[in-house]
Amino acid sequence: MQLTVLELLDAVGGTLLYGNKTDTFRYVSTDSREQMTTQLFIPLVGENQDGHRYIASAVENGAVGFLTQNETAPQGAVFAVNVKDTTKALGDLAAYVLGKSGATVIGITGSVGKTTTRQFVAAVVSTLGKTVATSGNFNNHIGLPLTILKMEGDEQYAVLEMGMNHPGEISYLSKIAKPDYGIITMVGTSHIEYLGSRENILLAKMEIEDGMKQDGVLLLNGDNDLLSQVTAHHKTVYFGKEKAEYPYEILSEQEPASFTLDSACYQIPTSGAHNIQNASAAVLLGKLLGASAEQIQAGLSDFETVGFRQKTEQCGSITLIADCYNASLDSDRAALRVLKQTNCSRTVAVLGPIGELGDHLPAILQEVGSSVVENQIDLLICVEQDAHWIKKGAMRAGMPEDAICYYETKEQFINDIPRLFQPGDAVLLKASRMYRFEELFEQVKQYQLQNKE
């Protein structure tokens, strides 16, 4: 979207150091290494980095102007604007751009499933009009504004994912986005180390209401014990199987999974009951926006998984399921259920720890172990030191020790790959992002492809 310096000054409350108020820029960047012809450079300041050091580089790469927290600015650009806080200015400018666009805003948060739900929602609303949506993990106080600032101005919908691990973060993002619709997928145990309890996590997720428009609508997971009982300040509708505006009924959990909702049948190009639940939120939103069942199905058919989220590949004689972008108790349970239903001769779960659990880690990882037994997994492989709690939980639930392998390091696991797997295995790899289990996925994949029969 093209803006004038005058609009920039109004949006961020800045002072023009040089240049003219009629000067213009198009789009924004915080990375001085990018080609920035016609763009505004915003130097961010963090604990270990100060973007002001790269202003000259940004100008060399085509930036027409820049913000600065300093009262003097280097020459070379068309204009320079002084602000008190460049990070806050980034958010303020994004709020201005989104408001000017007039797009209908859908904000999405939740302990589990927010990225998958975002993908479903973006696919559905794209059938109704031009849509901008969060990409990758751009869901924090930097990524969300940058997503908005990519807008060209004629978008009809903005689908914005909102992440958090501390109180107040969703509130800040919501006040930038000012959602017309808010979706909360789940309240689980993610980030419980910082928030202390699921009840506090609920309060943090409900901060999405802080910036919602007065006539906004909140879509909540009616199957979640906490969300189904919460008192909201906005009109609330529920998705799910139980307390739902239109309860869905699962027809098949296998890819393509299918379900019925309000007398219409829908299919999604992935598997799992959890994905059906996420898709049902997109279906409900589509209905609220006036989409037909045909339009909704067309959108669902365009759904694509992101990164290492339930990424399934046939590698030689085994099926690999990489679900290692992140992990939580709820997502581990969902992944194990998918593994259980996979057509194979033996199910193998390669599991690592879940991050940001603090003192809750032993109890929650033991629950993961219990879920392994509940889903009748044939072989459990625990990797990384804290994963011994998963082993302990599985053994307490009745899994024999000779059906469990435990490795304190990824290197130990990698060295043992040649003896671990059999033809016909379905192998799930899952852990929190910090443990980089995608590296194990690649190691297993390479071994299988090099030694396929």
Please give a structural write-up.
This protein is of the alpha/beta class and 453 residues long. The chain has 3 domains: 2-85, Udp-n-acetylmuramoylalanyl-d-glutamate--2,6- Diaminopimelate Ligase, Chain: A, domain 1, CATH 3.40.1390.10; 102-301, Mur-like, catalytic domain (UDP-N-acetylmuramoyl-L-alanine:D-glutamate ligase, 3-Layer(aba) Sandwich); 311-450, Mur ligase, C-terminal domain (Protein-Tyrosine Phosphatase, Chain A, Alpha-Beta Complex), CATH 3.90.190. It has helices at residues 5-12, 55-60, 86-101, 114-125, 143-148, 169-177, 192-195, 198-205, 273-288, 293-301, 329-340, 361-374, 388-396, 410-420, 438-450, and strands at residues 2-4, 15-18, 24-26, 28-29, 40-41, 65-68, 79-82, 104-109, 131-133, 157-161, 181-184, 217-221, 235-239, 248-252, 257-261, 264-268, 311-315, 318-322, 346-351, 379-383, 404-407, 425-430. It has a 6-stranded parallel β-sheet, with helices on both faces. A 6-stranded mixed β-sheet has the order 17-18-22-19-20-21, with helices on both faces. It starts with a strand and ends with a helix.
